[in-house]
Design a protein that fits this description.
heterodimer; A: 144 residues; mainly beta; five-stranded antiparallel beta sheet; three-stranded mixed beta sheet; 2 helices; 8 strands; 12% helix; globular; B: 505 residues; six-stranded antiparallel beta sheet; four-stranded antiparallel beta sheet; 4 helices; 34 strands; 7% helix
């Protein structure tokens, strides 16, 4: 989905739901597309962060859904434009945690809004943040 | 990969490769090396990696003399084998995809077979037809992310036999399980949930009671993982210990009561770009110190930390307790980067840089009472690939077997060409020199069943780079200078490999 399609859709929604229309200048939609989801077991959980200080500590928004094999899409509506990062975990065993081995390497599928390539280590704010403008943003995350 | 028709056509152009062979080789097993005939000495080492097929054998070859009756079993070896995909060649020996070999001994012959280890990485790269990640010594432009050590795993260093299976070992990732008979890859090994995906080194040590000890490192983590396994490979304990200087740790030693680590001033600083070779992110601190850590086997606590002035080492020999002192045999080199530059030049078929490193077998002594550490050269001209009678791992052993390089070696051909048996009690050593045309691979000690210490055989391979053929040799371990008591000449050459183990049957 590209930004142009998003704003057309928003215009349509505005006209159908007069009075419930979100002012385009103040809010934006973030679409997150995840793949591959390799199992329909458990839940896929997303966390949206809006600052370095809160990154991987306190989410600005969270969503989750039962896992579906293949591709899954989540949308965060009505966000203020700004910098954000997204992390994803596929909680296969339902313990609401991203299971990891003794060295902290994840043992369940995970993803993040990685910008550029990485070598080792948990994702940092600087390597995952992206800018959401009022035109909206579309993110593709590869699950590992 | 060559198909059968291409192989047969090429074979017609390479008459010398099969001359004088006693091989009872099946047609499928022969892979000709048409470019062998005029192998130049600078290409000696690199020529062993040319056109390596995905598998070898089964090939049965007669020994020139019958084997001793008591010597029965299989020698397994692992080593980097595939060095090229498409037009891209790896720069460094340690990059190559692993291939495990089985040399099964019968009374008169050896049956050789080998298969590539199908790690997740090599399967992905085979499907793509190109290298997808950088390697130890080679940067790959456009490399994928490296998000966990197993992304890079080529399982190319050694093997750990466990009953009907064997583990193909790398050092910074999971072991891979293989069928001991067919050498099919069965899958990535997982000991437990907590250890799933943890690094497991290529040099586990088995104590005389059969307990398997090992460790793993992850560059930049500041930790070592310690493993305590049952004889059958089941996990008893796994525990982390803090360790600085643990950004690349190849080997370790055990004594009766302790685990001993020699940790080098080699530090990992990555700029986060996976296009870089691993060694380009390693920085050698010549003014730094080597940390020797002594860990209590009972509680896995660090009980002593010693310091020594900087030196480099891959391999340790045996280690044992001598009163208050721990003695640790180690194959040292003065510096990391020149050693790597040598190996890179050899892998690329280039002249070895003239500032070649001076390696030296040494003994570290760690006084547990005074906290003083020392290191002294051992009077052997053997250089590396130390092996010993493994029935006495962690106890005093009086023989140390290594590979060396004689004056007969061709100056421009990289590698070892001599087998050394060093007597630690007398300080003497006996040597067998393979001469100018052969590059020797690790020779390991196989005990005579129920025999005294150091009674048995040395078994190993060598690659004749002029003929591009590999020979398996058996020596009487107490009379190494007399030369092989039996040899079997394979009808092909094998890629220069690393480490192995013998399974008596």
């Amino acid at each position: 989905m590209n930004a142009k399609m998003l704003s057309s859709r928003r215009t349509l929604i505005c006209s159908l739901l007069a009075g419930a229309c979100i002012h385009a200048a103040q809010a934006a939609d973030l679409t997150v597309r995840l793949s591959p989801i390799t199992s329909s077991q458990g839940k896929v959980m997303l966390a949206l962060y809006d600052s370095e200080a809160s990154f991987r500590k306190t989410a600005a928004a969270m969503q989750q859904a039962d896992a579906m094999e293949g591709e899954m899409t989540f949308t965060f509506n009505g966000l203020e434009p700004g910098e954000y990062a997204v992390t994803v975990m596929h909680d296969l065993n339902g313990n609401t945690e991203l299971d990891a081995n003794l060295l902290g390497i994840p043992r369940e599928p995970w993803g993040a809004s990685l910008q550029g390539k990485r070598v080792f280590g948990a994702p940092s704010w600087n390597k995952t943040r992206f800018t959401l403008t009022d035109a909206g943003f579309s993110l593709d995350i590869t699950m590992r | 990969m060559l198909d059968a028709k291409t192989r047969l056509t090429r074979r017609a152009f390479c008459q010398s490769a099969l001359a004088g062979s006693l091989a009872l080789a099946s047609p499928r097993a022969i892979s000709a090396r048409p470019s062998c005939a005029q192998s130049r000495p600078e290409h000696a080492f690199a020529s062993s990696f040319r056109d390596v097929p995905n598998s070898f054998g089964p090939t049965e070859v007669r020994f020139d003399k019958p084997l001793p009756e008591a010597l029965t079993g299989t020698l397994y070896r692992n080593g980097p084998a595939r060095m090229q995909r498409g037009d891209t060649r790896y720069n460094h020996w340690f990059d190559g995809d692993g291939m495990v070999h089985a040399f099964a001994l019968t009374s008169r012959s050896v049956i050789h077979r080998a298969k590539m280890v199908a790690t997740a990485r090599t399967v992905a790269e085979a499907e793509a037809g190109e290298f997808l990640w950088s390697g130890f010594g080679t940067g790959i432009e456009g490399s994928r992310d490296v998000l966990s050590p197993d992304d890079l795993n080529v399982a190319n260093i050694s093997v750990l036999p466990l009953g009907d299976e064997l583990l193909a070992l790398w050092e910074a990732g999971s072991p891979y399980r293989m069928h001991a008979e067919t050498l099919e890859t069965l899958g990535r090994n997982v000991f437990s949930r907590d250890t799933d995906g943890l690094p497991f080194s290529a040099h586990p040590r088995i104590d005389p009671a059969g307990r398997i000890w090992n460790f793993g490192y992850m560059s930049g983590s500041g930790k070592l993982v310690l493993y305590d396994l049952e004889t059958d490979g089941r996990l008893r304990r796994a525990q982390l210990v803090d360790a600085r200087n643990a950004d690349m740790v190849h080997d370790f030693a055990i004594t009766e009561r302790y685990l001993v680590f020699v940790l080098l001033p080699l530090h990992f600083h990555s700029d986060g770009n996976p296009d870089n070779a691993f060694i380009d992110s390693l920085h050698w601190d010549a003014k730094g110190t080597v940390d020797a850590l002594v860990i209590d086997k009972q509680n896995l606590d660090v009980v002593r930390r010693f310091e020594l002035p900087a030196f480099f080492a891959f391999h340790l020999g045996n280690a044992w307790e001598d009163g208050d002192t721990l003695r640790v045999e180690i194959a040292t080199a003065p510096d990391f980067h020149p050693l790597m530059a040598e190996i890179t030049a050899a892998t690329r078929g280039e002249r070895i840089p003239t500032s070649a490193s001076q390696s030296q077998l040494a003994e570290i002594t760690l006084n547990m009472r005074s906290g003083v550490a020392d290191i002294a050269a051992l009077p052997t001209r053997g250089i590396d690939f130390p092996r010993f009678d493994q029935r006495y791992t962690g106890q005093r052993t009086e023989r140390l077997y290594t590979l060396g390089r004689s004056d007969a070696a061709h100056e421009a051909a990289y590698g070892f060409n001599a087998v050394h048996a060093f007597n630690r009690a007398s300080g003497d050593e006996t040597v067998f020199d393979y001469g100018a045309d052969s590059l020797a691979e690790e020779h390991l000690f196989v005990p005579a069943p129920a025999g005294r210490a150091n009674t048995g055989w040395l078994i190993g391979t060598r690659y004749n780079w002029r003929e591009c053929r590999t020979t398996l040799s058996v020596f009487d371990a107490e009379h190494v200078a007399d030369g092989p008591i039996a040899q079997a000449h394979l009808p092909y050459g094998l890629p220069m490999g690393l480490h192995g183990q013998f399974v008596a049957r």
